[in-house]
Amino acid sequence: MIELLVVAAVIGALWLIGSVVGLMFKLVFGLVGGVFSLLGGLLALGVGLIVLPFAVLAMLPSVLPALLVIGVVWLIARSASRSTPAPAAHGSGPA
Length: 95
What we know:
The chain is mainly α. It contains 1 helix and no strands. Keywords: Membrane, Transmembrane, Transmembrane helix.
């Protein structure tokens, strides 16, 4: 019976050591993967910021008519909503 207990203890100890080693691998590879993910995200952000002006310029011919229509509507609405300021009431100044 003692031999069975020793075998179970050895198997349990090996299982525990394997679990700790697996945990360390998971932790290390998770951290390394996170660092590479952040670096890749920063690289993609940089490339995106470099490409953004070219994409905006490429879309300009298709967006320009809509922008002109929006500008004309805004000018019409702005000029139509101009109101003359109300005259000041007599005796409303500081005494």
